[in-house]
Amino acid sequence: MPWSPESVYFASGREALVALTRALGLPHGTRVLLPALVPEGIIAPFLKTGCQVLFYPLDENLDPQYPAFDELLRRERPALAVFIHYFGLRKDVTRFTDLCHQCGTMVVEDMAHILRSKAADMNSEADFVLHSLTKMLPVPDGAVLEMKPKYATLQLQFRRDLRHSIYLTFRIGELVLCTVRHSIGGRRAWKMLSVLYYLLPSYRVLMSYFTRPHRMSALSRYQLRRLAVSEMVSHRCHLEQLYEQGLSPKLFGRFVEHGSNGEHCKMGFPVRVADRSSLCRWLLRHNIQGVFFQSRWDFAPELPEFSTAKQLMREHFLFPTAAYLNESDILYVIRIANMWPVESCRP
User: Fold this and answer.
1) pLDDT over 50 at 57, yes or no
2) Residue 68: which residues within 8 A CB-CB, separation 6 or more?
3) Has residue 307 got a pLDDT over 70?
4) Considering the entire predicted model, what is its pTM?
5) Which of 8, 95, 220, 262 is the most exposed place for a label (fewest CB within 10 A)?
6) How many Cα atoms are found within 13 Å in the side-chain-facing hemisphere of 12?
């Protein structure tokens, strides 16, 4: 497995954050600094444990606006700051962490949208690295929390709740439906299965008990030991390269990365488009479905400094790179996408 033996395995990322916040002994009202685009799975644990959440602005490449971020750090002196590699885009966590450590702020690096190919010692500059396995792997539950050695004595507590078993049952149902959905060719049956998938209340169940952290299930551990993760990463990196080389730069804007070594893959190939609704309609006409984040992400207040982040929330789109897709599938997606009848992407 691509995580060190010292890693701690949780049922979900939000449960890991709840356990971490409690283990650190952060008092009620502790300031925590989050990016202007943040999923509910990140913000909810801090709110539930009584932290005061502050937001820092992002630029057009989803990097922190560092002058404003540095000012926030020095003025507010937060106990903790979160850094997100959006969509799997590799970003400069070293610069972020250096600024935080100058102010005595601990850093959580969120790699939920990234899958790495092999185990290694934690070489991030961050204090903690969080991986959410369900976003990248076919497992019913699972998150990995990596910690620097100086935090090895933290007492991360686990509990038991019947709702976790209910959640696992729904998640297994979702995985089965997802597998069947990708195995059939009929559009009508595909839509019906998609409706069934989204009707399963797994997310609501998870949100009802996540403040009682659980260990990752034995079923997910069993599956992880048998998954060829390195091969999956290599395959998805190849699909990413096809998109990079084939998608029209006039139609699809790109985000700047901070380097990539081929040992990490993204959850999809991210682009920026002027009219996402039009693109989605066009792709669905040709039985193609991508991904974008809309609900449970927009928590920052409506202030001018967060306008860029909110604009990107409306304009991002992820082309699929799932392991079950092959090269001919991606070439078909690229061909159809490049035929999208719009004039140009947003500059």
Assistant:
1) yes
2) 56, 57, 305
3) yes
4) 0.91
5) 262
6) 24
How far apart (Å, rounded) are the C-alpha atoms in residues 277 and 144? 35
Domain count of the fold of the chain: 2
Please check whether residue 63 lies inside any domain of the structure: yes
If asked whether residues 189 and 61 sit together in one domain, one would say no
pLDDT tier for residue 182 given thresholds of 50, 70 and 90: low
pLDDT score for 344: 46
Q: Per residue in 16-39, pLDDT tens?
A: 999 999 999 999 999 999 999 999
- What residues make up the domain containing 181? 160-212
CA atoms within 13 A on the CB side of 71: 6
Give the other-Cβ count within 10 Å of 259's Cβ.
7
Crossing angle, helix 327-338 and helix 229-246, to 10 degrees? 30
Contact between 13 and 130 (Cβ < 8 Å): yes
Angle, to 10 degrees, between the axis of helix 162-181 and the axis of helix 202-209? 150
Is 74 part of any domain? yes
Residues 60 and 103 in one domain: yes
In this structure, the answer to whether residues 135 and 173 fall within a common structural domain is no
Residue 15 maps to which CATH number?
Answer: 3.40.640.10
Distance of CA 167 to the CA centre of its chain: 20
Is the domain of 78 the same as that of 12?
yes
Residue 272 CA: distances (Å) to CA of 6, 127, 319: 38, 31, 11
- Nearest Cα neighbor of 130 from 141, 118, 142, 121 is 142
- More confident site: 164 or 118: 164
Stronger pLDDT, 177 or 282, i.e. the higher one? 282
Cα–Cα distance measured from residue 111 to residue 96, given in angstroms and rounded to the nearest whole number: 15
Claim to verify: residue 141 and residue 170 sit in the same structural domain: no
What residues pair up with 144 in beta bridges, in sequence order? Answer: 9, 131
Closest Cα partner for 334 from 221, 247, 214, 223? 247
Q: Is residue 36 part of a domain?
A: yes
Query: Among 212, 228, 246, where does a domain finish?
Result: 212
Give domain status of residue 128, yes or no.
yes
